[in-house]
Predict the structure.
Amino acid sequence: MAKCEICEKTASHGNKLSITRSHISKRSPRTWKPNLRSVKAEIDGEVKRISVCAKCLRDGKVKRA
């Protein structure tokens, strides 16, 4: 399953709502997936390829190789 290796963000589940004539008439399941990027990062002095979410990249939690 897709998972950020820094913050461990995973997919979340909920309902997709179909709105017809200002009433919620149908509900169907849907999944929100994290925005993962595969990057080369320096971890413990070694260069590894890891999956990291875009928020961790933007916040500088990962030192890229």
Observations:
- The chain has a mean pLDDT of 91.
